[in-house]
User: Fold this.
Amino acid sequence: MARKGKKKYKLKTHKATAKRFRLTGSGKLVRTKAGKSHLRRNTPKRSKRLFTKMIPVKGKGIAKRVRRMAPYLSKYRANPNARSGKSSKS
Assistant:
């Protein structure tokens, strides 16, 4: 039985971080490439195709910061916003 007066506080997720990163099944932190949102009319097809890939995060410090800002990424592995860049409201 839980003791009265002792609460375990919920941590707030930094929403911008949660949308930009996701965890793979093996626990790796991956990110989307920058520069895929606009001004793509004059970009070569090859470059546009390279924007679709998810890249693993290499820096330990950055990965630590992302995990601190979005503590529940492991619970929500299938993050639709991080993959496609679209909102999940549609």
User: Anything to note?
Assistant: Residues 60-69 form the longest helix (10 residues). Helices lie at 15-20, 45-50, 60-69, 80-84.
